[in-house]
Amino acid sequence: MAKKQGFVKQITSRDDDFAKWYTDVCLKAELCDYSSVKGCMILRPTGTALWEKLREVIDTKLKASGHQNVTMPMFIPESLLLKEAEHVEGFAPEVAWVTHGGDKELEERLAIRPTSEVLFCEHFKKIIHSHRDLPVLYNQWVSVVRWEKNTRPFLRTTEFFWQEGHTAHATYEEAEKETLDMLNMYIYVCEEILAIPIVAGLKSEKEKFAGADKTYTNETLMYDGKALQIATSHNLGDHFGKAFEITYADKEGKEQNVFTASWGFTTRSIGGMIMVHSDDRGLVLPPRVAPTQVLIVPIAQHKEGVLDKAYELRDQLQTDMSVTVDASDKQPGWKFSEAEMKGYPIRLEIGPKDIEAGHVMAVRRDTLEKIELPLDENLNTALTELLNTIHNDMFATAKARQDEKTRVAHTEEEFFELIEEGGFVIAPWSGDPKVEEMIKEKSGATSRCWSFAHQNDDLTGVKDLWNGEDAKYMMHWAKAY
Amino acid sequence: MAKKQGFVKQITSRDDDFAKWYTDVCLKAELCDYSSVKGCMILRPTGTALWEKLREVIDTKLKASGHQNVTMPMFIPESLLLKEAEHVEGFAPEVAWVTHGGDKELEERLAIRPTSEVLFCEHFKKIIHSHRDLPVLYNQWVSVVRWEKNTRPFLRTTEFFWQEGHTAHATYEEAEKETLDMLNMYIYVCEEILAIPIVAGLKSEKEKFAGADKTYTNETLMYDGKALQIATSHNLGDHFGKAFEITYADKEGKEQNVFTASWGFTTRSIGGMIMVHSDDRGLVLPPRVAPTQVLIVPIAQHKEGVLDKAYELRDQLQTDMSVTVDASDKQPGWKFSEAEMKGYPIRLEIGPKDIEAGHVMAVRRDTLEKIELPLDENLNTALTELLNTIHNDMFATAKARQDEKTRVAHTEEEFFELIEEGGFVIAPWSGDPKVEEMIKEKSGATSRCWSFAHQNDDLTGVKDLWNGEDAKYMMHWAKAY
């Protein structure tokens, strides 16, 4: 199936070997590189710029909704990590331990944070006294470490980058509202910035975060039909509040328990973006996250006036979008291939004939369609509209594929057939965790979520496909990353 | 000496116990808090906001000068750290070591980066091949860990935050230019943003960075007369280039060595800012780094129209500055004291009488001066000018104190007398490291830098104060943090 189209850097076709295609794109589009520590990647300039853009979008949303950034240490003393029982059980097996400082062995070994609930809760206990101190709406931008056996750039790395929000509230209901507000904020980032369609819902008891009361998730399908959990938001109930004895005096002066929530968005989302949108020519960047939205490629740039015009065009455009001129001494054909590999949403080709004719050729990265546009003061508007069109079309393409690959199973047999074919399989389930275990063992699939869209389904008389009990959930299932 | 002025939160006077005063300000202005890991601090919302502002200023400067952000792993395999001999000798004693991942012992232990030269150099070797690939101008925003015995918030913490720039160049001269350009960028940040006057110059061989060819430094005096090294920039020569075998093909195709530089600016600068500007009422924030520049305090806010007017005023002002209204239910006197503790550059008091009279009372945090300003459309301009005046006055005050505490020693005896009195002591030195050791042992002082201002001094016939040899350097000396 691999077509040879004379690209500058050949990559594996995604239909031939999706895993190899994926790492080819990550490396050859220069998003990341391997480091000498297994499972840790180097984020190269474009990879870092993508994360910075996501950070900017999320940070702006968080600040506008009253959240404040703080910064906790990267270390957690072992005794502190042990305070919430379910939490430590979930995380201990994948913790990296610091045992020595210089040449001295530490009295107590330190975990490098796999997540920071316990650090925030210890701090909350110190700063929360009265109902006036609530809610506390904190967030931090850091990296965390989880010792993983099988790693893959962006999707699963030993060290990864994220924001982790940690909030404290007077009531369970307020914690629940925060949890859902943040889930919705993540849906906005996925759909409106990354052009990734989301199925949002509740995780099963088995799949929820270690220590949570409820975990909500944003799930999406990759090109190969496997699911990706792209962001999660947890209502932690009073689990951590009780374990850390965080209380406040209510308006009547009565001591009350605090309820907490936590929510995170990681560099994994960049892996999802690649697996949803990119193709056999390389990376395809959604316009609203692309560090460079328009790449200008001068044709016959040695000819008088061409480079000047290219820079003039850049100056005109960059008030409305991010623009770069490729003035390197490579041939245009090479520049085109490289532009396709690196995924710039729009490539603008401009040569002596274009300048004379007063137009410019815009090439969409997503469809490779060529569009001739007048070289005048309306070009900014035309390209701004084109960037929006590209975003909308990329989202629509991904949504259509996801919808097509989402099917309802009516029997156990059909369920396993559909799971083998890939995509989301929706099926009625009693909630019995033994069923989840059996399905995972038999097919490798896991319950992804009880989507909001199915939470009002009438399940009267509907049975669990596997154990015949009354169904409680129309659940999304899939093999997942 | 401690005056009792009825502050909300009494703090130690800086003339009574400077060290205690400093931690009082850090904690009571809510910049940071202690964590359960010794030597690691929690940056609270204001502390984090200060660092974010510095990050924004520096990042903008770096991107405008062609630098790109990347992200390296936090781990360095022990064998990699050992590659540059001087470098490892300097850092090994203070490295935190990860020895276990989950319940498995690692085959090779991993250092948590104390600095990342070796990680960048390993990557440079992979990406640099031709003169076309140079220069490489990289930077990253991360935290690093150095296992310190004596720690103090911001000034010396086990984990601290910084940007570390790492660049590769074709020639020594280009590396030198980069080193000095970045030093100058840091001077801009210190003087124009933090209002901290800088003495810039070259470090001695003994005091330079482990592995550097030359280290340039920005030094400044704290209120107590001790010096602080606030930022450094290193020309690493070909030391790392050779140790890591980073070469490139020049225009003639000949293989050449690469020269590198590195430079860093840390959260320590916030400690310097506190120790230069703050006073017995608490924090004094320089206006250009203050997260909130103007705090509006409504007087008799229960009276009709007062709070509305306060918010209206905020809306008018916030197009030009950052403004917050303190609408809490505390008494104005408490609000004033709290505003002084937290260091807002300008406090605006507005009550029914002010509204009726059409004016507002502005109180400068630096001088506590009260200024009546008309409540009209010119207020934005007046306050913008006042913020600039405050910046300039704060800088001038710090500069005058630094100049006053900078004296030239003419004899060995006078040198040690002046060192005991505090401040910078300038004295002629041969460059003999034995003299530095003797001075440190006898007085605790160290050579701070050979300042640029003294590099053209005519030292004909001038002798080293301690060993009588010909003087080569008019050196700044001081006790330092």
Automatic annotation (TrEMBL), chains A, B:
<keyword id="KW-0648">Protein biosynthesis</keyword>
<dbReference type="InterPro" id="IPR016061">
    <property type="entry name" value="Pro-tRNA_ligase_II_C"/>
</dbReference>
<dbReference type="InterPro" id="IPR006195">
    <property type="entry name" value="aa-tRNA-synth_II"/>
</dbReference>
<dbReference type="InterPro" id="IPR045864">
    <property type="entry name" value="aa-tRNA-synth_II/BPL/LPL"/>
</dbReference>
<dbReference type="GO" id="GO:0016740">
    <property type="term" value="F:transferase activity"/>
</dbReference>
<dbReference type="Pfam" id="PF09180">
    <property type="entry name" value="ProRS-C_1"/>
</dbReference>
<comment type="function">
    <text>Catalyzes the attachment of proline to tRNA(Pro) in a two-step reaction: proline is first activated by ATP to form Pro-AMP and then transferred to the acceptor end of tRNA(Pro).</text>
</comment>
<dbReference type="GO" id="GO:0006433">
    <property type="term" value="P:prolyl-tRNA aminoacylation"/>
</dbReference>
<keyword id="KW-0547">Nucleotide-binding</keyword>
<dbReference type="GO" id="GO:0005524">
    <property type="term" value="F:ATP binding"/>
</dbReference>
<keyword id="KW-0963">Cytoplasm</keyword>
<dbReference type="Pfam" id="PF00587">
    <property type="entry name" value="tRNA-synt_2b"/>
</dbReference>
<comment type="similarity">
    <text>Belongs to the class-II aminoacyl-tRNA synthetase family. ProS type 3 subfamily.</text>
</comment>
<dbReference type="GO" id="GO:0140096">
    <property type="term" value="F:catalytic activity, acting on a protein"/>
</dbReference>
<keyword id="KW-0436">Ligase</keyword>
<keyword id="KW-0030">Aminoacyl-tRNA synthetase</keyword>
<comment type="subunit">
    <text>Homodimer.</text>
</comment>
<dbReference type="GO" id="GO:0004827">
    <property type="term" value="F:proline-tRNA ligase activity"/>
</dbReference>
<dbReference type="InterPro" id="IPR017449">
    <property type="entry name" value="Pro-tRNA_synth_II"/>
</dbReference>
<dbReference type="InterPro" id="IPR036621">
    <property type="entry name" value="Anticodon-bd_dom_sf"/>
</dbReference>
<protein>
    <recommendedName>
        <fullName>Proline--tRNA ligase</fullName>
        <ecNumber>6.1.1.15</ecNumber>
    </recommendedName>
</protein>
<dbReference type="InterPro" id="IPR002314">
    <property type="entry name" value="aa-tRNA-synt_IIb"/>
</dbReference>
<dbReference type="Pfam" id="PF03129">
    <property type="entry name" value="HGTP_anticodon"/>
</dbReference>
<dbReference type="InterPro" id="IPR004154">
    <property type="entry name" value="Anticodon-bd"/>
</dbReference>
<dbReference type="InterPro" id="IPR004499">
    <property type="entry name" value="Pro-tRNA-ligase_IIa_arc-type"/>
</dbReference>
<dbReference type="GO" id="GO:0005737">
    <property type="term" value="C:cytoplasm"/>
</dbReference>
<keyword id="KW-0067">ATP-binding</keyword>
<feature type="domain" description="Aminoacyl-transfer RNA synthetases class-II family profile">
    <location>
        <begin position="43"/>
        <end position="286"/>
    </location>
</feature>
<dbReference type="GO" id="GO:0017101">
    <property type="term" value="C:aminoacyl-tRNA synthetase multienzyme complex"/>
</dbReference>
<dbReference type="InterPro" id="IPR002316">
    <property type="entry name" value="Pro-tRNA-ligase_IIa"/>
</dbReference>
<dbReference type="InterPro" id="IPR033721">
    <property type="entry name" value="ProRS_core_arch_euk"/>
</dbReference>
